Write a sequence for this structure.
């Protein structure tokens, strides 16, 4: 049974690698740099060969649009979520009376348990119409000169909607870890800073937070890993852009995770099987990206543990 | 310290901002809860529970049954693998292998669920030729749940006091007897909580099921393979994008049901843990 637990990670890597290997050879670097995803002409008998691998004529699997979408939605989500989470965690640790804290903790746990499709549902029905109907037209008219804000207002489905939903989803995870990290630090640091004459906010920002910096960074990275791999909520509000970059934050995007789901039906029609294999290559890419983020988080946390001892 | 009055005001302003941030977070989440329940509860008519989905309308009987079947299968699988893994980590592993197994479990916790789904799609649906099926879906949920179950069981077993275990050993009990008759009962509430938390997560999963369980308009056939299974999260995702109000009603109903299921599991785990620890004290 232990063997099963340990083997799963290796098996995921192995199966995806073996299955997508023809696609890795066919696509080469195009999976990272190409901007066209096209399963090729399924009706003609023409085929095309590349590096000894055959696919339907015109088949091309460029993943840059989705890599960019994954990184940009998660980065923007972090811009919203990190400051908010630090503020909320500080309020929980220092301003919520201990007797009320358990209510706040239960609420946060509840928020972390809401399924991603429910966030997606709310995003699609409430957030997207608001962005498309009010926010985007207003901002694109009044801030047309600002980079990433001017241009077409779009329907509301897009980069901003995805980032807001992702931020909502990771805030509870980040807050819970940050609160624990802050509360685990000895109160002596806060008190020493107060005794030196600083205000309570200075004591927190100049003494307490720097002393738990590693724990905070690890919390951010774990949340980032979650955001990078989130599928359903993003799929529902991203606008599912295909072969197209967003020209501003309101335009449609697509992420690796979302495109794997939205392209499944199309990929199954590819008689050469190369579309399916290329989706597996994208899954492998996503696995590697999140793996790197999580390993960095662990290394930082271990360093933090060692420093505390 | 040069302008103490200003810094004091600034300090107060920041603390007010932090409390406002807390209220904002709670407010937005409350908005989402209330919105989904307000739309979903009226749509939960009795007929929804007894009719199957039919195109874009009908009921949710097949999805409810499918979700419960998939989750029960996943929970059974993950309890077998997860709890025995944790037992081995705590009781029998050497420190180095223990650290390695914990590392693997941590890594698994960070793997996106869609990647798990695609892996099982390749391994079970395609290579083994099981097709979209109950067993493939159950496996995907078990893998998603595994890190949560192993971690909680690991923590609970590690927390069993050494003197209690040593007392049993001193009375002549073998390691396996100590584990099964002393450590396990002691750790059971913590393990159970972990399993329930994992169950809540499994109830809300979508992405891996799309690739393993597929979707079906009919009641699950109980055939282990070659028979796709419907589930509630699929209805939320897919039916809300249809241009028909009947479809939207079903999506809201499914979302409300999911929330109720998940809150119920969270509540049960909290209450059970409280009761258990109160009894022990």
């Amino acid at each position: 049974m232990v063997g099963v637990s340990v083997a799963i990670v290796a098996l995921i890597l192995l199966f995806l690698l073996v299955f997508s290997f023809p696609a890795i050879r066919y696509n080469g670097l195009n999976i990272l740099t190409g901007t066209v995803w096209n399963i090729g002409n399924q009706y003609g008998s023409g085929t095309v060969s590349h590096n000894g691998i055959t696919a339907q004529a015109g088949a091309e699997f460029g993943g840059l649009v989705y890599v960019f979408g994954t990184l940009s939605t998660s980065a923007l989500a972090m811009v919203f979520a990190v400051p908010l989470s630090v503020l909320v965690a500080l309020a929980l640790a220092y301003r919520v009376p201990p007797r009320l804290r358990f209510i706040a903790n239960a609420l946060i746990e509840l928020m972390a348990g809401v399924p991603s499709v429910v966030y997606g549902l709310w995003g699609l029905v409430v957030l997207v119409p608001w962005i498309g109907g009010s926010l985007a037209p207003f901002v694109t008219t009044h801030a047309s000169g600002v980079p990433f804000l001017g241009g077409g207002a779009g329907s509301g489905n897009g980069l901003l909607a995805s980032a807001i939903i992702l931020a909502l989803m990771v805030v509870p995870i980040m807050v819970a870890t940050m609160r624990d990290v802050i509360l685990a630090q000895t109160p002596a640091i806060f008190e020493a800073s107060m005794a030196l004459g600083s205000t309570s906010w200075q004591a927190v920002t100049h003494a307490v937070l720097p002393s738990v910096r590693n724990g905070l960074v690890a919390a951010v990275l774990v949340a980032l890993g979650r955001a990078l791999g989130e599928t359903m909520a993003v799929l529902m509000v991203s606008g599912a852009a295909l072969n197209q970059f967003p020209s501003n934050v309101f335009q449609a995007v697509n992420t690796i995770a979302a495109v794997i789901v939205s392209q499944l039906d199309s990929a199954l029609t590819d008689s050469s099987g190369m579309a399916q294999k290329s989706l597996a290559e994208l899954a492998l890419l996503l696995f590697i990206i999140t793996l790197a983020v999580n390993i960095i988080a662990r290394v930082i946390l271990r360093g933090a543990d060692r420093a505390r001892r | 310290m040069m302008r103490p009055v200003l810094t004091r005001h600034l300090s107060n302003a920041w603390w007010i901002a932090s409390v406002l941030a807390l209220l904002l977070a709670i407010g937005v989440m409350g908005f989402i809860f209330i919105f989904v329940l307000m739309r979903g509860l009226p749509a939960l008519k009795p007929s929804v529970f007894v009719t199957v989905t039919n195109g874009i309308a009908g009921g949710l009987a097949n999805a409810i049954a499918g979700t419960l079947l998939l989750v029960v299968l996943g929970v059974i699988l993950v309890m077998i693998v997860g709890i025995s893994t944790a037992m081995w980590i705590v009781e029998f592993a050497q420190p180095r292998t223990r650290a390695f197994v914990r590392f693997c479990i941590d890594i698994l916790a960070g793997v996106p669920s869609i990647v798990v789904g695609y892996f099982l799609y390749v391994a079970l649906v395609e290579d083994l030729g099981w097709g979209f099926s109950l067993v493939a879906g159950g496996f995907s949920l078990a893998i998603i749940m595994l890190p949560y179950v192993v971690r909680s069981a690991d923590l609970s077993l590690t927390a069993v006091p050494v003197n209690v275990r040593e007392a049993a050993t001193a009375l002549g009990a073998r390691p396996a007897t100590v584990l099964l008759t002393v450590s396990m009962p002691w750790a059971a509430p913590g393990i159970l909580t972990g399993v329930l938390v994992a169950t809540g997560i499994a109830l809300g999963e979508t992405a891996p099921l799309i690739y393993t369980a597929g979707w079906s308009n009919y009641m699950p056939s109980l055939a282990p393979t070659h028979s796709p299974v419907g589930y509630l999260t699929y209805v939320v995702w897919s039916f809300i994008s249809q241009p028909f109000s009947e479809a939207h009603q079903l999506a809201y109903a499914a979302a409300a049901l999911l929330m109720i299921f998940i809150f119920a599991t969270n509540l049960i785990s909290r209450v059970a843990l409280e009761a258990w620890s109160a009894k022990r004290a």
Notes: The two ends of chain B are 50 Å apart (CA to CA). Residues 46-280 of chain B form a domain with the MetI-like fold fold (CATH 1.10.3720.10).
